[in-house]
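SEQUENCE-TO-STRUCTURE ENTRY
===========================

Backbone structure tokens: a row of integers, each naming the local backbone shape at its residue.

Task: work out the structure tokens from the sequence, keeping to the layout shown below.
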Amino acid sequence: MAAHAAVPARHHHGTLGWALPLTLGVVYGFYTSFMAREAGESVGGQLVIGFVSGAVFAALCFVLGRYQYALPRELRAGAYAALVGISVGYLYSLSGRSILTVVVLALALAVATFIVTFYFFYTHED
């Protein structure tokens, strides 16, 4: 009797695969535009910053969500850590804080994200 080879698990992305990154990108773009406004009137520059940053964030979320299962757990946790650290650091830099404060906060959040996601991926492997 012939043995059948195991079929590798395929991760299908339905509507959530593009709707979640799009929603996150819109929210991130609006918040970036709000942070860039600095309590003044809304002008075109802030809207462009919000649109571009939201589009880039949505694209990065989409790509990471699409290809995360091809990465080993260390790189996958590092990718999520980099995405969180850079995106929050950028938002915090728009508040006018010093670069040292921004870098420390971004690194702290990136390290915390790496630890949490690595633990999650390590304990939930197939």
